[in-house]
Amino acid sequence: MTSQLQRFQEGLPVLADPPQYDLLIVGCGLYGATFARLAADAGLRPLVIDQRPHIGGNCYTEERENIHVHAYGAHIFHTSNRHVWEFVNRFAEFNNYINSPKALSGGRLYSLPFNMNTFHELWQVRTPAEARATIESQRFRGDPANLEEQALSLVGRDIYETLIHHYTRKQWGKDPSELPAFIIKRLPLRFTYDNNYFNDRWQGIPIGGYTLMFQKMLEGIEVRLGIDYFSNRSALDPLARCVVFTGCIDAFFDHEEGHLEYRSLAFEHEVIATDNHQGNAVINYCDPEPAFTRTIEHKHFDPVGSRSDVTVVTKEYPQPCRDGAIPYYPVNSEANQAIHRRYRERAESLPHVIFGGRLSEYRYMDMHVVMEAAMNRARSVLPALATP
Ligand SMILES: Cc1cc2nc3c(=O)[nH]c(=O)nc-3n(C[C@H](O)[C@H](O)[C@H](O)COP(=O)(O)OP(=O)(O)OC[C@H]3O[C@@H](n4cnc5c(N)ncnc54)[C@H](O)[C@@H]3O)c2cc1C
Q: How far apart are CA 6 and CA 97, in angstroms?
């Protein structure tokens, strides 16, 4: 993969007296980069560090075969928040990509999200009334005791068996009958012929890739890569007046209240000698085999910017979060939520540390949610920091 990141430095800066930075931002993902941009716009001096060798956190894209590869899984930007949309458009022009994944089950392809196209593919029904009646006749009635019964009560048996059961088992490594019901609160059903996965007003992929967008966002800001905060804490903390921490909150407190559980992912990237392998950016795999849950064909995210005679396809394998694997999905159990509440209480007693982002909040957050959270927090704390 080619590096687009020549200008970012490695190694620690030298300590000066008084501290030469206003903020030390740990993590150069979307939360850290948004916060850094707003701090710099307010006349403050942030230093951003990341343990990874690149900027962008999980949104990072790298160029391969002239294609912008989403290195940590498919990332589609979508929002209905005008402030977020205007902010992100300062750094990127977005294309008109609309996410319309397909799901493969029993050798047949189905449309996602669950909508009239899916219902027609499943039952050959044509009207919303027919689809509603079919789902209604298959629903589980009663108080759902587990995720399987919850899903059956929301969408009925056919959709569950065809598109949810095995996909969920692969994703969480457990059968849905062994998982708590509250993991799935809603399974949206759309009674129109509309394969647009998201309901938001704005949607797209940054032309040129997310990494280019982050580079523009970080213009004029000092970024140091390949630096782990915990291994360098005593050298890093004195460099700035306050810390913005976007890593794992349990690691920040040495796991003293317990370990927060995550599910991880492994990505297998492959160059295939054809210009169009699967005809769509995202395909979900809903059978017990193969073990991967999704394949991503990256060039379809950006057909104009990713012209190539070959294609790059990524298989996404859910896996346990062990041995330094990247934590992706919080395991949303009551025990984990209780541990996280204890960390949050401890975090509130540290006024010079701002905790933010998906790993500190211990919840799945879409990009626009992370960005909005960083914008709100920056708006509340930066004015005081900017006052001498
Ligand atoms: C598979 C997948 C697909 C997704 N698809 C979408 C999508 O289509 N649309 C959407 O809106 N959202 C999507 N998301 C969510 C999106 O990835 C997040 O909203 C976003 O990346 C969160 O940004 P962040 O800054 O909170 O975290 P991150 O991007 O994880 O950034 C945190 C950074 O902190 C660094 N860090 C952590 N600990 C330390 C340390 N000790 N020292 C130094 N650095 C450290 C990490 O290396 C990382 O770079 C997806 C997520 C996943 C997992």
A: 29
